[in-house]
Amino acid sequence: MEKNLKSRATINRMQQKGLELFYQKGYYTTSLDDILKALQLSKGAFYYHFQSKEDFMVSIVQHLLFRKVYSMLIEPIEGKEDPFRNIETCLENALEIAEHNPMDFGFVLGNFMNEFNGKNENVSRYLNDICKAWEVSLVTALQKGKSDGYLERHHDSEGIATFVISSYFGVRSLMVGGNPRMLRYQYMQQLRCYFKSMALKSTF
Amino acid sequence: MEKNLKSRATINRMQQKGLELFYQKGYYTTSLDDILKALQLSKGAFYYHFQSKEDFMVSIVQHLLFRKVYSMLIEPIEGKEDPFRNIETCLENALEIAEHNPMDFGFVLGNFMNEFNGKNENVSRYLNDICKAWEVSLVTALQKGKSDGYLERHHDSEGIATFVISSYFGVRSLMVGGNPRMLRYQYMQQLRCYFKSMALKSTF
DNA sequence: GGGGAGACAGACCTGTCGGTCGGTCGGTGA
DNA sequence: TCACCGACCGACCGACAGGTCTGTCTCCCC
């Protein structure tokens, strides 16, 4: 049992560092040696715990990425209040973290989806599942918002969710290139403008 | 002189195929041999015309990508009419092309920006320049729109441009994953909704 | 206290990558 | 006709990738 604990600790360290480096330098352009060197571990250690590089990546997505996206982007918008307000503050927080800590997990998702699209169907599927979960939570929040009178019923919840996800992935992509503070400000202002045009009980 | 023509033809073929494969499979995951095999050419031919793989990529960005982005995303919105209308039809066209032909150049730009961010400063610079050119053209169109009474002066043109670019990059990214037709429809509907909330002389 | 299993070390294998380099070939001008 | 040059060929190189395999260390259990 003590052994099992040590094993888990090592696996966690590997996954953490793996996510970090894969995100920073890209999956295909980061070698296992890069990760193992940073952790002071060997090939033997790696292949003792994982079957392959791809298996390693899948484990990162399933265990680390999913949890992070859930806690940062899904859970915060499950409130009972104005869905626009919830989504807005949620994204504002995410972008604020992204400004200081380069590894905000909402965008890690988008980044990986881009990298694996058309290259690795297996990993892509897991990533798409997470993205889908985010989308569903957005749609659910918006539908509830309709019941609670925050937006009119004729609005397309799925469309709004798509637009929110798209714009967020996009702006995070731009932020990596520079001027994160300004981009965040501009983005949030426009998002508010967009939401405002649909809101009924305006709390803006 | 005849020789020079042949040389240019070969260079063009290489750049075309290079862009195609780099976009489909990624720059770092596409080998020169992949490209040369598709063209029935040899390493010797490649290194006769280009100094390195990076040099090759830069030449593609400068010559092919820039021109395409210019003709597809910049030129079409330089009209005198309603900037919202212009941008809208421009993106609609781009997405329509993207739906049938997987290589729409607006997104090739976004895709490459993602891939080279933080990995190759040299290539990134050229890509950012093109993106900046697009942004400038959007801002210019919006500013002219203010003069012509299509939107109120208090709106932030830079912010709108950022939001448009972000959302477009984002939705194109999602489209690669599947359901391009639906995503395009949803995106355009929401974009119209967003624009409508700012338009003065509504032509919608 | 010794043996067996878990956790890891690291040399090594094989394939592929970007890049090099001597050689080839067809057209062209003298 | 023959030297020459632009355009190209393809064998080869060293670096490095993912993955394998054998050996080793350290606990725990009997």
Automatic annotation (TrEMBL), chains A, B:
PROSITE patterns: HTH_TETR_1, HTH_TETR_2. It holds the Pfam family TetR_C_13. SUPFAM superfamilies: Homeodomain-like, Tetracyclin repressor-like, C-terminal domain. Residues 8-68 form the HTH tetR-type domain. Keywords: DNA-binding, Transcription, Transcription regulation. Residues 31-50 bind DNA. InterPro entries: DNA-bd_HTH_TetR-type_CS (IPR023772), Homeodomain-like_sf (IPR009057), HTH_TetR (IPR001647), Tet_transcr_reg_TetR-rel_C_sf (IPR036271), TetR_C (IPR011075). It comes from the Bacteria. This is TetR/AcrR family transcriptional regulator.
